[in-house]
Specification:
alpha/beta; Rossmann fold; 2 domains; 12 strands; 14% strand; binds NADP nicotinamide-adenine-dinucleotide phosphate; binds glyoxylic acid
């Protein structure tokens, strides 16, 4: 029997590639970057499966270029806003993602960003390297206490709840906003209180974003929302850049509507709104939320298993469009 043909858009950890190689004819892109559009369109031709990254836009044109054999698009990420899922469903193509295995790793990074901006770690590092450290000073680099502060979590899913668990150890008050209220036992266990978005923005000392990027969450945090936050508050975004209006955020940070921000994601990656680069009260990371050795290996295995199971005619464990099975 013919082995299914698969294209992997960029080298991922070997643990995943090995699984795909066992079951499929595989081409792994040898291009060390985001594939140029023309190359992507050419490489997907006649494939049964594609294993792609969040930096690949997989839209109608790509599915059309792949042709009628395409049965599965396995994303090497939990967020799948880079894929036109509706179009895939219409075409009977399964879409999968990598939930769960990166939850704690991403929450760790969000926590690290929160601590870094609150305690001015990056500014301090630059200060020491610049040879400006003259010894302990009463007023040197004063910041904000995280311990005992109020954390506002936007999107109380896997990563949002992992933030709430961390907050217990810091004796924080935890507020959350989500489309649906969490079950009572979850609220009680995580000592988390539901708030509307405006309430959360007005009460929280740290606001951390953990919703997916959808039509509804695009610019969820814009000028109006930033103005609702406390002057002493901080915004942390490890979800997706376009959830925050980056231009409005620059103004907020310049004019002191809020005290600081920490970002792992940007509106037009890899570009960064130029104003952000000039500000000291923002910590910037290059989309490394899930970037631990262990987690990236687990994501590779998960993406590979999803792909292989779908190609064998099974229901992949992390199918994001189960409607496709009803067709
Ligand atoms: P999740 O478990 O699905 O959690 C997302 C939560 O947001 C869910 O509770 C969801 O509710 C809620 N939500 C969806 N739309 C909403 C809206 N319009 N308003 C309020 N709440 C809304 O996902 P996760 O695993 O925690 O991941 C969250 C996101 O983090 C991913 O989508 C991805 O974009 C991002 N991420 C980034 C990195 C990084 O490297 N920086 C790493 C991993 C993930 P429902 O379940 O009811 O829809
Ligand atoms: C990373 O951003 C992911 O969605 O997995
Ligand atoms: C600071 O180093 C202190 O001892 O208070």
């Amino acid at each position: 029997m013919r082995k299914p043909s698969v294209f992997i858009t960029r080298r991922i950890p070997e643990e995943g590639i090995r699984i795909v190689i066992e079951h499929c004819e595989v081409e792994v892109s040898d291009y060390d970057g985001v594939l140029p559009r023309e190359t992507l369109l050419k490489k997907v031709r006649n494939r049964d499966g594609i294993l792609c990254l969040l930096t690949d836009t997989i839209d109608r044109e790509v599915m059309e270029a792949a042709g009628p054999n395409l049965r599965v698009i396995a994303n090497y990420a939990v967020g799948y806003n880079n894929i036109d899922v509706e179009e895939a469903t219409r075409r009977g193509i399964m879409v999968t993602n990598t939930p769960g295995v990166l939850t704690e790793t991403t929450a760790d990074l969000a926590w690290a960003l929160m601590m870094s901006v609150a305690r001015r770690i990056v500014e301090g590092d630059k200060f020491v390297r610049a040879g400006r450290f003259r010894g302990w000073e009463p007023m040197l680099l004063l910041g904000t206490d995280v311990y005992g502060a109020t954390l506002g979590i936007i999107g109380f899913g896997r990563i949002g709840q992992a933030m709430a668990r961390r907050a217990q150890g810091f004796n924080m008050r935890v507020l959350y906003y989500d489309l649906v209220r969490a079950p009572f036992h979850v609220e009680r266990e995580l000592r988390a209180e539901f708030r509307t978005l405006p309430e959360l923005l007005q009460e929280a000392d740290f606001v951390s974003i953990h919703v997916p990027l959808t039509k509804d969450t695009y610019h969820l945090i814009g000028e109006k929302e930033l103005r609702m936050m406390k002057k002493e508050a901080y915004l942390i975004n490890t979800a997706r850049g376009p959830i925050v209006d980056e231009k409005a955020l620059v103004t907020a940070l310049q004019e002191g509507w809020i005290r600081g921000a920490a970002l792992d994601v940007f509106e037009n990656e890899p570009e960064v709104e130029p104003g952000l680069l000039e500000l000291d009260n923002v910590v910037l990371a290059p989309h490394i939320g899930s970037a631990s050795y262990a987690t990236r290996a687990k994501m590779a295995i998960m993406a590979a298993e999803n792909l292989v199971r779908a190609l064998r005619g099974e229901i992949p464990p992390n199918l994001v469009n189960p409607e496709v099975l009803k067709r």
